Structures are given as C-alpha cells and as structure tokens.
Structure of 3-oxo-5-alpha-steroid 4-dehydrogenase:
Amino acid sequence: HSGFSASACFVSPFWNICTFFSLLFQNVPYGRYASSVYGFPVNVKFAWFIQEMPSLFLPLALVLWTSSAKTSLLPNQLLIAMFLCHYFQRTLIYPFLIRGGKPTPFASFALAFVFCIYNGYMQIRYLSHYAEYPAYWVSHPCFIAGSCLWLVGWLMNIHSDHILRNLRKPGETGYKIPRGGMFQYVSGANFLGEITEWAGFALAAHSIHSSAFAIFTTVVLTSRAMAHHKWYINKFEDYPKSRKALIPFVI
C-alpha cells in the first residue's frame, strides 16, 4: 500500500508539472492544432478508440480477475462505476459518433495511450485494492457533492459533444460557432464538463490519485479552452463578445 501510494505521489505530480510547462509553449497537437511535426496521421476514430481503451478494459480486468475485499464495499463500487461509466462512453460510443474530424498525430495518440494505461491502472488499482472509506462515506457531504458534480460534468460533456457534432449539416464543411447549452457562456463547454466531472470524482474519492488526475485534466483542458477561445475570436467577426473561454462570466 505505502509503496503503491508513494510511487503515485511521485509520478502524478511529475507528470502534471511537465504537462504544465510544455503547454506554456505548445498546445496539445490534435484536432485543429494537429501538425505533421508530431508524426504520421492516425484516423481520428481509430485513435480515440484505441487510446481510451486501456482506461476501460484494464480497470475491468483488475476488478473481475483479481480478488480484493475492497470491491465489495459500496463507496469503492460507486467510485469504480463512475470511472468506468466515463470510459465506457469515451471508448465504445464517442469515437463512433465523430463526424469527419482531422487525423491525430501519432505522437499525441501514443502519449494518450500510455497515459490511459498508467491512469486507468492507478485509479482502479487503488480503489479496488487499497482505498478504505468509513461505512458512512456514501452519506458524507464530500461524497454527495462530489458525485453530483461528477454527474453534472459528465452530462455537460456529453451534451456539449453532441452540439459540436451537429454544427454542420450533411455535406457542409468548415467551422461554425457552437451555440446552445453551456456554449452560450463559454467556448470550451465540453472541456468545462470534463474538468467538472473529474473534480467531482476527486472530491468523492478523496485520494491523492484522483486529485492528481483532476489537476492533470484541468491543466490540459484549460490550455485547450483558452486556445479555442482565441481561435474563435480570430476566426469569426460575429463571435459573441460576452462568451468567456472556460468559466462563465469570469475567464
């Protein structure tokens, strides 16, 4: 237990710090920011399916094929279910709904794949074998508030992705201004949803591992939301002036 937590305490902050400083100079190179500098292009549907897969199937294998009394405890079960619910949608549904989409550079795809192996294992190994919560934890304000935040973020993320997918009618090309849902307030509604989701998960799980993941997600997606906002303003003269990048009415 101590060895597992110690390694996670070192690797996760190190990954977060490296990510933060790299994003000061270069946005994550996929989607509209893709570049041939980062390797040959990978089909976007294939890339999303394969890179997210370890965060679904590795945790499932840990839960189903390893024995641990922790998986019989309700708080652990609910937290594992939250994690798997996200990655079920991200792996088996989201990639196959993508319409068009620019190819992903191989370097971005490979890094995402490695991260999903590490993070999927770290989160669920901890929850299935080591995490200990008091019997009342599911009724604790932190768990209730965290679970509600997770659900709101998950639904916001899915709804925002739906809006983005349906911006263009069949046969249309080019970029359009997203409208509706949280896009009325921010340019990065899908990113805000995912940040909210993992912040809620971290609050409910109350662990170094979940907190590190929430921080990593926030660092990466805040950078992307700011870049998207700047891109939209430069691209569209009629872009809504009141719309912020990530946090409604703030930034």
Observations:
- Residues 2-235 form one domain.
- The longest helix spans residues 208-235.
- Residues 146 and 203 are 5 Å apart (CA to CA).
- The chain has a mean pLDDT of 87.
